[in-house]
Amino acid sequence: MTKTLIIQSTPVTGIEMSVEWVADATPQQVWIVTNKTLTLPDIATAKVTAPDVCGEPMGTEELGWKFVKWEDGSTERKRTVTLNGSTTVIATYEQQVYYPTRHYTRRKQKFEAKVDDEVYGLRTTALKPMMVEQQEVTTAQQARIESLVGDYLNAQGLYGLDLHHYRNFSMELWGLSRLFKSATLNKEASEKAKKWKTRGLQQTHLENIAKLFGITLTFT
């Protein structure tokens, strides 16, 4: 049997909150954006954490929104919710005012004083597995392309300073491939290749290395 937890915020929505529970002795945590309905296992309680403030100065008179209370009158941002089939919780926020006449350092200090380090810490911890996975994928891709470039350079019998320069060119292409795609990538890579050609590198080698990245160079 499953249960539902409906998490709302008023008078604004789109507020990120943390939800934690324990199922089969295993702690679970997700981040949701209001308004949201969560389907949970057959558990007795769940912990919901609402941010103290959300939003930031954006050139308007609104600094953002500050937590006031839950629908049951509780003013504690972190609460344990008893689940009974379908349970709804509502967080009330009030608008904060941005005062342009206040010195910018005082505005900054006041805003940063409202930042909840614990909430951000929980959020970072929850995101770590995804960040590690992304880094592992990126590292594997980089290792593969470096191996392909190394095999090509070795097959051409290149050594010494020339080998170093061609490797530097390949690293520049790797950086560009992380920023651009398709025609834009070809154009940016071609500009890099033209500079390396003026330094004495051979156009054929530059073109062949670029092909390993799926890049077509133009020297005209």
Ranges with pLDDT <50 over ≥5 residues? 57-61
What's the CATH first level of the largest domain? Mainly Beta
> Using DSSP, what is the number of strands?
9
Shape from CA axes?
elongated
Percent of residues in helices? 40-55%
Fill in the CATH topology of the largest domain. Immunoglobulin-like
CATH architecture of the largest domain: Sandwich
Quick summary of this structure?
The chain is an alpha+beta fold. The protein has helices spanning 104-113, 117-155, 160-177, 182-198, 203-212, and strands at residues 3-10, 16-23, 26-33, 36-40, 45-49, 53-54, 62-70, 78-82, 86-97. It is built from five helices and nine strands; from the N terminus they run βββββββββααααα.
Descriptive tags:
220 residues; 28% strand; 9 strands; Immunoglobulin-like; 5-stranded mixed β-sheet; alpha+beta; 5 helices; 43% helix; 4-stranded antiparallel β-sheet; 2 domains
Structure description:
The protein is α+β, with helices and mostly antiparallel strands and 220 residues long. The chain is 43% helix and 28% strand. The protein contains five helices and nine strands; from the N terminus they run βββββββββααααα. The strands form two sheets. A five-stranded mixed sheet has the order 4-1-9-7-6, with no helix packed on it. A hairpin with a 2-residue loop joins β2 and β3. The longest helix has 39 residues. The N and C termini lie far apart (68 Å).
